[in-house]
Amino acid sequence: TADSIQDNTERRQFSRRSARWVATITTRDKVIVPCRTRDISERGASIESPADFRANALVILEIVSFYKGRKKTFKMLAEIKHSAIAKEGFTLGIYFKDANEATLKFFQNYAENII
């Protein structure tokens, strides 16, 4: 029905915005994987990765943003929500599990085009 189709297309809780920033995933075993963000929201990111990760894996995610001439580095505990095969590697859906308030506020303002 139309109602069930609408429910499936409006899954996103937060606004997101394209962002091509350098990112690094560090696993529990201290393996460091260089990545790149595709887009950012207040509570998560879509990440291009050369390596696949299992769903629910906890990782340390570092994102280095370069926006309006300023470089900012954010580091947080993140959870891999899903992984899909992409043209060059994998696309990961990542949830920011433990990020400080300033980090979440920056990503929210960025995603909502406030800054």
Summed over residues and divided by their number, the pLDDT gives a mean of 89
The total of beta strands comes to 7
Strand content: over 45%
The assigned structural class equals alpha+beta
* Helix content bin: 10-25%
Alpha carbon gyration radius? 14 Å
Uncertain parts: 1-10
Total count of helical runs of at least 4 residues: 2
- Order of helices and strands, N to C? HEEEEEEEH
Strand order of the largest sheet: 2-3-4-7-6-5
Quote the distance from N terminus to C terminus: 39 Å
Structural description of this entry:
It is a single chain. The chain is of the alpha+beta class and 115 residues long. 17% of the residues lie in helices and 53% in strands. The chain has a six-stranded antiparallel beta barrel with strand order 2-3-4-7-6-5. A hairpin with a 2-residue loop joins strand 6 and strand 7 (89-98). 23% of the residues are buried. Mean pLDDT is 89; it is low at 1-10.
Topology:
Layout: H1 2-9, E1 16-18, E2 22-26, E3 32-41, E4 44-49, E5 58-67, E6 70-86, E7 89-98, H2 101-111
Give a quick precis of the structure.
This protein has 115 residues and is of the alpha+beta class.
